[in-house]
Design a protein that fits this description.
Layout lengths: L1 H31 L9 H10 L10 H21 L6 H11 L8 E11 L2 E11 L5 E11 L2 E8 L8 E3 L10 E8 L6 E9 L4 E11 L2 E5 L2 E6 L2 H9 L6 E9 L2 E10 L2
Antiparallel strand pairs: 1-2, 2-3, 3-4, 5-6, 6-7, 7-8, 9-10, 10-11, 11-12
């Protein structure tokens, strides 16, 4: 009898040795599975979604970034409708900062908002740039219109991919005119590259009137009636740097017209 129990005990120990690593691995895998927060816990839910962007290229990110956009804009619509006095840029930016607060490196979101009165209403731009590497980034811009005690979402755009999102509001061309420049840079090569789009808004839709892409080391200034972009030409920069010389800079000046922007001059200036 003792020999029999000894054989049973040895068999059970052997079985534990065989199954043990597999059971332990399964338990560890289960432990690693992230708990999906409820959508009502928006900061943690957005953090959960954004964390899944790690290691993904832009071409593979659409489903996740689209879900983030939907949840953020749904929330902002409800949040503004609940209290229309919130429809101003600083308050909206702080709310975006709150809902994105729990994102963890390398994921990051930078809110960017603007507001302007127009034809008895107020226009509120609510935007953000979502990053998960230095190069992979998307931007979203929603335009809200506040009339009296009502705030409505008019339109949504995504500007230029892989560029962060900032704004300039040029002088108006008439009482019905509302325009703004969305612009930003993206890293790459040896200098950041500037992209910009001049939009007009008619209360319902955005219309691009002018745009420029990937201006090498571009820096933009919007002043009274003018848009100025200072930039380098990449081939000149590479050539002059190879000879340890400073390359020439260039300055393009545009006049703001009812139709958009009209180039006035493009000249070489000292570095």
């Amino acid at each position: 009898m003792a020999a029999r129990w000894t054989r049973i005990l040895v068999s059970l120990v052997a079985l534990g040795v065989i199954l043990g690593p597999g059971v332990a691995a399964a338990a560890a895998a289960k432990k690693r599975q992230p708990v999906v927060p409820p959508v009502s816990d928006l900061p943690n839910y957005l953090s959960y979604l954004a964390w899944q962007l790690r290691g993904r290229h832009m071409d593979e990110s659409g489903e996740i970034t689209g879900e983030i956009q939907k949840r953020v804009l749904d929330h902002m619509q409800e949040w503004l409708a609940a209290d229309p006095s919130r429809a101003e840029s600083v308050t909206a930016r702080r709310e975006l900062e709150r809902v994105f607060f729990n994102l963890k490196y390398p994921t990051e979101a930078k809110p960017s908002c603007f507001e302007e009165s127009w034809k008895g209403s107020a226009i509120l731009g609510v935007g953000y740039t979502l990053y998960w590497t230095n190069y992979n980034r998307i931007n979203v811009l929603a335009i809200f219109v506040k009339s009296g005690s009502q705030v409505r979402l008019a339109t949504v755009t995504s500007f230029i991919p892989m560029v962060d999102l900032l704004y300039e509001l040029p002088p108006r061309q008439g009482p019905d005119d509302f325009r703004f420049v969305a612009y930003g840079t993206r890293p790459g090569k040896s200098q950041p590259r500037l992209s910009a789009t001049l939009y007009s808004f008619d209360g319902q839709n955005l219309k691009p009137l002018w745009e420029t892409h990937d201006v090498y080391d571009g820096k933009m200034d919007v002043s009274t009636g003018k848009v100025t972009i200072r930039y380098l030409k990449e081939d000149e920069y590479v050539r002059e740097q190879a000879h340890k010389r400073k390359p020439p800079r260039h300055e393009a000046t545009y006049r703001i017209t009812p139709a958009g922007l009209e180039l006035e001059s493009d000249r070489e200036i000292p570095f």
